[in-house]
Design goal:
Layout: H1 2-26, H2 43-57, E1 61-65, H3 73-88, E2 92-96, H4 100-106, E3 109-114, E4 117-123, H5 129-137
Parallel strand pairs: 1-2
Antiparallel strand pairs: 3-4
Domain ABC transporter: 16-68
Protein name: Sugar ABC transporter ATP-binding protein
GO molecular function: ATP binding; ATP hydrolysis activity
């Protein structure tokens, strides 16, 4: 019986490693060691790993604070694709951010806060960078 348990554990571990390798390849994460420290990856690749965890765990709600801050254009595009994929598969995503173009591209609804208060909630169809900036500043541009 012990041999069956060990064999089942080994098969599960091999399957899990295959899944990791598949995700690393699919997300174009640059690493030389799939069992290495996440802290050794670039900022963009660290972000992809964090989002991949959300994809694997099939969470219901993902809250992101400035999800693309400090990452390069390629990683940003990959991150946008991952977020759109998560949303298409039923995950609710709340993005806290200040980059208007990112919010307009990714969000269905955008709430603008000024001085700790929500001053507007716009549907994406009505939102653009100018209307959001007007709400942020509290005056028409």
């Amino acid at each position: 019986m012990g041999d069956q348990t060990n064999e089942a554990g080994f098969v599960h571990e091999v399957s899990a490693l295959r899944d990791v390798v598949s995700q690393v390849q699919r997300l174009r994460i640059k690493t030389t060691n799939i069992q290495g420290e996440i802290g050794n990856l670039s900022g963009g690749d660290q972000q992809k790993v964090a989002l991949a965890r959300g994809m694997i765990t099939e969470c219901d709600l993902l809250i992101l604070n400035h999800p693309t801050r400090g990452i390069d254009v390629g990683a940003r595009s990959d991150t946008y694709d991952m977020l759109k994929n998560l949303a298409a598969n039923g995950t609710s995503i709340m993005i806290i951010g200040s980059e208007m173009s990112e919010l307009v591209e990714l969000c269905h609804r955008i709430a603008v806060m000024r001085d700790g208060q929500i001053v507007s909630i716009q549907n994406n169809k009505e939102a653009n960078e100018d209307t959001l900036m007007e709400d942020v500043l509290g005056e028409q541009i």
